[in-house]
Amino acid sequence: MKKTPLHDLHVSLNARMVDFGGWDMPINYGSQIDEHHIIRNDAGMFDVSHMTIVDMKGDNVKAFLQKLLANDVAKLKDKGKALYSCMLNEEGGVIDDLITYYINDTFYRTVVNASTREKDLAWITKQAEAFAVEVTERDDYAMIAVQGPNARAKAHIALGDDAAEKLDDMKPFFIRDYKNMSVARTGYTGEDGYEIMVPEKEASALWTKLLEAEVKPCGLGARDTLRLEAGMNLYGSDMDETISPLECGLNWTVAWEPAERDFIGRSAITKQKEDGVKRKLVGLVLEGKGVIRNHQKVMVNGNEIGEVTSGSFSPTLSQAIAFARVAKEIGDNCQIEMRGKRIDARVVKIPFVRNGKSCL
Amino acid sequence: MSNIPTELRYTKSHEWVRRNEDGTLTIGITDHAQGLLGDLVFVETPEAEDTFSAGDDCAVIESVKAASDVYCPVDGEVIEGNEVLADAPETINHDAYGDGWIFKLQPEDEGAFEELLDSDEYAEIVAEDSH
Lengths: 360, 131
Description:
The complex is a heterodimer of chains A (360) and B (131). By secondary structure, chain A is an alpha+beta fold. Chain A contains 9 helices and 21 strands. Chain A has helices at 7-12, 32-41, 61-68, 117-128, 151-159, 163-167, 203-212, 220-229, 266-275; strands at residues 16-20, 23-28, 44-47, 52-57, 82-88, 94-104, 107-112, 134-137, 141-147, 175-178, 181-184, 193-199, 216-217, 279-286, 297-300, 303-314, 319-327, 333-338, 341-348, 353-354, 357-358. A 6-stranded mixed sheet of chain A has the order 10-11-12-9-3-13. In chain A, strands 14-17-16-15-18-19 form a 6-stranded antiparallel beta barrel. Chain A is globular, with a radius of gyration of 20 Å. A 6-stranded antiparallel sheet of chain B has the order 1-2-3-9-8-5. Chain B has a 3-stranded antiparallel sheet with strand order 4-6-7. The radius of gyration of chain B is 14 Å and the shape is globular. Chain B has 4 helices and 9 strands. The longest helix of chain B has 11 residues, at 119-129. Chain B has helices at 31-37, 84-87, 91-94, 119-129, and strands at residues 9-10, 15-19, 25-29, 40-44, 51-52, 57-63, 67-71, 76-81, 103-107. The two termini of chain B are 13 Å apart. Chain B is an alpha+beta fold and 131 residues long. The A-B interface holds A 16, 27-28, 31-33, 221, 225, 289-291, 293, 312-313, 315, 339 and B 35, 38-39, 41-42, 44, 60, 62-67, 90, 93.
């Protein structure tokens, strides 16, 4: 199994390690629920070094990304600004979701999922040929996500020197170099914070400094409940290559204008839109006891109308919540088939939690 | 390493069984099992007078991560379920062999307890699990 540069530190912190797409990663360091609350209320950190950083360089890199991505990098006017997008296949299915950072006119950086690394690199490299764009995986970087209302203040202490002065005015969804690191004000929790790309040889030292600044280590278990509460999709659960962005709640990430921008998958999803999208992603809150799980059936009046794509227990709301892909006619109520029983659930707007507070 | 008290008996499916002075049995899940499941958020205990055969699923425990059945270790009739778990399922995480018990059973055959795994045999199963 693959190990990140922080692996030994996780083991020394008594993390429970699991196989996460071929990576030996911490699922928790004791209590997943405690770790969830730490990020909602204070500051915690995740080792996300398994994620894949890809640098793209060349004179035609902007045109290349306008072809590759369903969202439009032309929206990025200011250097350092980030954009969330889907990368589609010709059929309009989602190959991956990713974040692209605009570094300068000949250099964009992208972060893609760990589980999709090989196919993403193959796809991006293939598409890049026609644009003479140089594609480089940056596996010389580790990445630490520091998240929570106190995350930035504590990260500034850990980074030391003039970090606060150099980073404090950076707006959300931007990236900036600091010393030999890249610091992005992004994340996957619905809280403020940084994702810090750090040379792998220096990752352990930074992690230790963050521990000293009282940033608590958190596992991928908490990361999943945090992103679900915050209404963020998980690739492989909420969408895959057979699902278009219109069927997984990511319509807002598709840039339809300008109409002449011919991104990969455009004609397929345009046709789908014209024919009418039959399924949509909704939020569900369980009214009864139990925990909603992936792939459970969603029922209305005894008829199956869809399936849970991400289900779990929300530590912030103390009840079970889920995303489900359902027939677009679904009303305000449904039932979920759980372990042989049908339990009532309410259909709600996503997200469930924002800035630590319930949206219900 | 996992905590495996020597005075208890065990099952392959990670239940522990304590024999009380009156011949009744108290049943829960092991420390190893709660560790694998992680934070528990919901427990459905059996009710008094429910009867089960050995191997029947008789309770449900759900963690953030997964749902898991609890299997009745021997034939018998339920005396009571642990009501504390309805509001505080995490009691199992904190005290698996004490306050985190799941139900009490009147066994049909008092000798059945002796046929369950002892702590050494269970420790071997846990050791195999970890590989």
